[in-house]
């Protein structure tokens, strides 16, 4: 069973590394429910998780999660002590703390640019995480940490990427920033403006029109030559007739 779980974890990690560019050390955001489950099942998160993910991991939480654990009192005192050992990531709720689940959701907005894992036993939070592409989900089952398989949302996102129909939002922003840094954005804007300007007449069309005029001009000159030739023939014929008459006389 242990080898099978490890095999599935390696496969799922390969999916996130290849398609969403997850790199070590892996950033794992934990909530109070995960810490409580680890305490109940005697799981050493800091020691066991890096081996399961096959790479270095940074365990972290937020101030909102810590305040939520404090508010719940003695029942989750042990979970609070575990969470306090982890790094605290800054969230946007300094003045007005929110629930731990709401805070963790806010940390993975806009395409999860910081490549966070979410570790939780909260089923409602887990369902919301699965609706976001590129967010690995960790939970505890039967005294074992488990990395969930990629959600249908993540699979669909990767399929669109493979058909070149979608670019991640954080990549779009980085591309725009690079263009602005190199001054390419202004050059592209100037090129587009130049294309919109009305151009002059096509020189090829002018040449064609000139050819038509010359052809039309050649036709009357040919007719004139024919008339002159007929006139010369008539003059010659009349001269010959007059000569013949003189000889007869």
UniProtKB/TrEMBL annotation:
Lineage top rank: taxon: Eukaryota
Region (Disordered): 168-249
Stored SUPFAM superfamilies: PIN domain-like
Keywords, in A-Z order: Nucleus, Ribosome biogenesis, rRNA processing
GO terms for biological process, alphabetical: rRNA processing
Compositionally biased tracts (Basic residues): 224-234
Gene Ontology CC, one term: small-subunit processome
Biased composition (Basic and acidic residues): 178-191
Location of the protein in the cell: Nucleus, Nucleolus
Entries under PANTHER family matching the protein: RRNA-PROCESSING PROTEIN UTP23 HOMOLOG
Protein family per UniProt: Belongs to the UTP23/FCF1 family. UTP23 subfamily.
Physiological role: Involved in rRNA-processing and ribosome biogenesis.
Protein name: rRNA-processing protein UTP23 homolog
Native species: Mycteria americana
